[in-house]
Amino acid sequence: MLGNYSSATEFYLVGFPGSEELHHILFATFFFFYLVTLMGNTVIIVIVCVDKRLQSPMYFFLGHLSALETLVTSIIVPVMLWGLLLPGMQTISLASCVAQLCLYHAVETTEFVLLGAMAVDCYVAVCNPLRYNIIMNRHTCNSVVIVSWLFGFLYQIWPVYAAYHLSYCKSNVVNSFSCDRGQVLKLSCNNTRFMEFILFLMASFVLLGSLIPTIVSYTYIISTILKIPSASGQRKAFSTCASHFTCMVIGYGSCLFLYMKPKQTQAAEYNRVVSLLLSVVTPFLNPFIFTLRNDKVIEALRDGGKRCCQLFRK
Question: Which of 48, 145, 222, 249: disulfide with 63, CB 3.0–4.6 Å?
Answer without folding.
Answer: 48
